[in-house]
Design goal:
Largest sheet: 3 strands, antiparallel
CATH superfamily: Nucleoid-associated protein YbaB-like domain
Helix content: 55-70%
Number of strands: 3
Number of domains: 1
Distance between the termini: 42 Å
Strand content: 15-25%
Radius of gyration: 23 Å
CATH class: Alpha Beta
CATH architecture: 2-Layer Sandwich
CATH topology: Ybab, Chain: A
Length: 109
Amino acid sequence: MAKGFNRGASVGGQAGMMQQIQRMQKQMEEAQAKLAEATVSSTAGGGAIKVTMTGDQKCKSVEISPEFLKDADAELLQDMVLSAVNLALDESRALQEKMMGPISGGLPF
């Protein structure tokens, strides 16, 4: 084979690859914007504690039932809030994986 054979094909292949990467980058940016707006909620203590978090793992709110506060001690309250936050984080990560997974092809982000 002569040197330079298929040289034009590799340049075209590189241009196609760059376009594909740019499309993927745009899709990732759009998905990240949607994740920032999407919310998930989780509860603990039979609904006494509710945590709402965005798809990009930002805590939006923590709600504590006033009835729960009447009988709860500080340690129980801390455990319930921690549990609700961790559950909300898990749900947020699952949402992120659902939205970003098809775009990234399983790449870590």
